[in-house]
Amino acid sequence: MNQRPTRRLGALLAVVAVLATGACSSSSPPDDGRVRVVTSTNVWGDVVTQVGGDLVDVTSLIDNPSADPHSYETNAQAQLALSRAALVVQNGGGYDDFLATMLSALGTPPLVVTAVDQSDAYATAGNEHVWYDLPTVGAVADAVAKELSTLDPTNAATYAANAATFHTGLDGLAGDTAAIAADHTGTPVAVTEPVPHYLLAAAGLDDVTPPAFSAAIENETDVPATVLAQMLDLFAGGRVAALVNNSQTAGPQTDLVVKAAQDAGVPVVGVRETLPAGQDYLTWMGATIAALAAALA
Looking at the whole model, is its pTM more than 0.85? Predict the structure, then answer.
């Protein structure tokens, strides 16, 4: 599990203090009648948008496509959005604990959908990066449709139809992933972090990264020299077909690994924790799957 903090403690305590002194959650819609929704990241924000369309007003607290999500700090603007939300979608699993803490300070909490609670994969693997598990994303979309229908029953049929359309897109991505598995099951790959764990598993790939390496990078601790040597040897020895790198959390040791892969002619596939600018979930994940297939080919 990712143990890295997502905000400074002082900033969080300041926001919680504001919440505790009178902010209350409100299910009243914005002036235009849309349902207010707050999500921890823009990945889940886009899932809500796919289901709710023009009927929802979505605020994603972590939405900077170039920033490390783990550096996020809560602020008064986030606190205000949360106090007005009728529905909140959080990742859970320790990934966005700042949001759970803020929710606990609300006098009247909103409805909440927690992604890991919708995930059979998380129950088995315990990896919190569940937006890389397509069945989980579909389950979250269904849960969002259900809660939006509770808040706005007049448009329940629209929410259900939008969720079904989104599922069709997910089915296409699942087919593309299965095609990789058909051609490359058992192919060894390495990762800088276990962010894409579920996608690689669905593609039938064998992650041979030294566990101590990815754990150290994820928890922002130094990689032991012997472990780093084991990681670098994967490329020098031609033992992996690709490196999958989290491009949003670069550091000296991951930069060294990426360079080693490039020097050895091993393709590097970039993955992310938030949506790139101008892309929705289906487009982004489709491009990631296509890049993985191209690297293996």
Answer: yes
